[in-house]
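Objective 1.3, modelling of assemblies. Example input:
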Amino acid sequence: MTRTRLFTLAALLLAPLTIPAAAHHSYAMFDMQKSVVLDASVVRFKWQNPHAFIEADVTTNAGTERWAIEMTSPNNLTQEGWRRTSLKPGDKVKIWVHPLRSGDRGGSYAGVRLPDGSTLGTVN
Amino acid sequence: MRLLTGAASAALCLAAPAAAQLGAATQSAPPAGVQEGHGAANPKGRYAALDALPDWGGIWFVMGGPPGAGTPQPEPKLKGEYLARREQWVADARARDGVVRRNRSNCSPPGMPRIMRLAQYPYEFIFAPGRVTVNQEAWMQTRTIWTDGREHEEDPDPSFMGDSVGRWEGDTLVVETRGISGELEIETGWPHSDQFVLTERIRLDPTNPDILINEMRMVDPEALVEPFEVTTRYRRDRYGKLYEFQCSENDRNPVNEDGETQYSQSVIPAFANLGAVSLTAVRFR
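Predicted structure (tokens):
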């Protein structure tokens, strides 16, 4: 396991344990001040507690990067309009994330623009 | 070979009495404070009385969002070795840029009182004669609050949920919980002792019946200088339901060769300078 991969996993764990009552995405590993938008092709969408997550190939000037994006719980996402079927592999989407402060290729989900143009979460 | 077979048979014979005992029906005595034939174990004929209780139907999410600007969030005031542990935790987190190691599985639930304050996973409250059951989506945990007049166990086994005894004062459920394991925390990075006692006063918001208010008061003669009080609010989703939570099926935490989870607990307001998403309960002194 490379160091980068380890960090990505570390970022993804973000146990629900860590979440104080009044904070949803206050994960120190993520730069919550910052949002970046990714042109992404969905590789995998996991709809399961403790956290849903998206794996996606992101197109950049330098080529393609594999990103891992952690989300909140499926029940919370349902409140926001998400469903288990909202994403499927191959979907071309824009994903807004709060990136890892380490610079590794991961982030905390903020919002998405789906292939049909509709949006979920915070996109800006 | 024959010898081995004989030995195995002998072992089986020896084991049989113990196995028979395990299979026998156990007859526990009523808990202290509950008469034979009464209490939560004898619900039949007592369901109609539940109608007098308030309407807590649906599921409940901890209300999140930033606290009001300038509103200081309450913090536990620790003392002695517990304060020292807190300071060490903070130092460790600083040294690791906000990430602290954790030596038990992240699939291990937080236990009380933290599990009553999780932002991401809702709760439901099920009333039955002599008891209130709190189902928690998080880790699919179940908490029982006995309301049948029983006393606290004299020497409860330390546990994640503790020993919760409650009573209804009008429409307020008042619960005292003892026996919470001293291995657990008040909040992430805030240790307590095995003398920790939590009192909760839970009721609907008189101005909005879709909000449930839990006034929590924590005392700990060994760890806390003074009682720690914090209020948790939950919003109702009337027709929502709890989702399944099988942590081991979706646990992406790195574990080293000693079986220790490598990283966790990245709640670091001091680093994150979070602004609108500021943290509440965990902050640096």
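The longest strand of chain B covers residues 208-219.
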